[in-house]
Fold this protein.
Amino acid sequence: NAGVTQTPKFQVLKTGQSMTLQCAQDMNHEYMSWYRQDPGMGLRLIHYSVGAGITDQGEVPNGYNVSRSTTEDFPLRLLSAAPSQTSVYFCASSRDSNQPQHFGDGTRLSIL
Amino acid sequence: KNEVEQSPQNLTAQEGEFITINCSYSVGISALHWLQQHPGGGIVSLFMLSSGKKKHGRLIATINIQEKHSSLHITASHPRDSAVYICAAVSGNDMRFGAGTRLTVKP
């Protein structure tokens, strides 16, 4: 079972570059979410989606865009990368926010 | 002040000891999650609680909604329990996390 698949696992960008972090799940989960994890700060919710076509902002949405065109996929876009976005990014899915979350393996992103 | 506070930040125990990790939250919640993050970075969901108590093997999670407090207990701790334990408070579709408790269990 694939579960939640994140790509890439590692990425280095230059300031100002754009990129998309991919997240896919094969469990037919409606709720998907993106988090960033920084030392000493813990996990913080960036954006979430409660179903195809529906997205909303979390605690730290600035600098990130998301879309949910299918149930399976929930990509996270950095439009103009900044060093402050250097972090480890996790995607997760569940039936809804009150159900156990299934996490991807994470993407370690460095912005130079 | 963080909306979700965990204590202690770091915990070192000897194998076999009983472990308690605490989580307090200030927001109204619909559920509370306990997560385990392995040294390699992967995150696993341990429990989802909305009331009372849940048990899975040597792990027990409790929540007191009135006191806005949850605890994670590990009985007969083992070195393989060494990890970061994270609580997360769910309010609607939003989720706020504690900073985590780093547990090291020595043989």
The first strand of chain B starts at residue 4 and ends at 7. The mean pLDDT of chain B is 93.
